Design the sequence.
């Protein structure tokens, strides 16, 4: 079972790294779009039409694609003033419980995002200015949240193994 867990962890880490790189590339594109829009607005008196809409959609992609990598790298804010004073086993049990709650929450978010994509496919809803459909960006959100959920599952089993070992 340990070998399977290590392979699972490696696959999840690789997938989150690729996802993160895509998200960072999108962030770079957003930076250039913003700079071009500001330059066009103030120096040429011609802003980029629909730049705000594109920024909104791309921000969904950036956040959802980089969330899992942040979890893999343990980059989220942790406040452990009280928990750090407990024995290692108790810390692992608390970590397992909170991570399991996170898995449940992320599963619900992913499930509802899938339902939202299905509704958007049927409705044909598009953005106001550029007429960009919403569903592909919600699909990216589904992918990112599902990947984040898998990272939390991996973390849950790591906490569980630490609780049993100690």
Sequence:
């Amino acid at each position: 079972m340990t070998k399977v867990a290590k392979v699972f962890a490696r696959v999840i880490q690789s997938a989150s790294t690729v996802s993160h790189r895509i998200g960072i590339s999108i962030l770079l594109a957003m930076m250039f779009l913003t700079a071009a829009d500001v330059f066009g607005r103030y120096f040429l008196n011609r802003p980029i039409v629909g730049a705000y809409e594109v920024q909104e959609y791309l921000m969904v992609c950036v956040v959802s694609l980089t969330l899992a990598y942040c979890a893999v790298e343990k980059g989220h804010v942790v406040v452990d003033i009280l928990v750090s004073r407990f024995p290692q086993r108790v810390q692992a049990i608390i970590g397992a419980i909170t991570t399991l709650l996170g898995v449940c929450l992320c599963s619900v978010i992913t499930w509802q995002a899938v339902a939202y994509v299905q509704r958007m496919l049927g409705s044909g809803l598009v953005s106001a200015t550029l007429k960009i459909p919403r569903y592909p960006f919600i699909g990216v959100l589904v992918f990112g949240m599902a990947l984040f959920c898998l990272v939390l599952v991996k973390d849950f089993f790591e906490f569980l193994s630490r609780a049993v070992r100690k």
Summary: DSSP finds four helices and no strands in the chain. Residues 50 and 62 are 18 Å apart (CA to CA). The mean pLDDT is 93. The chain has one domain: 2-165.
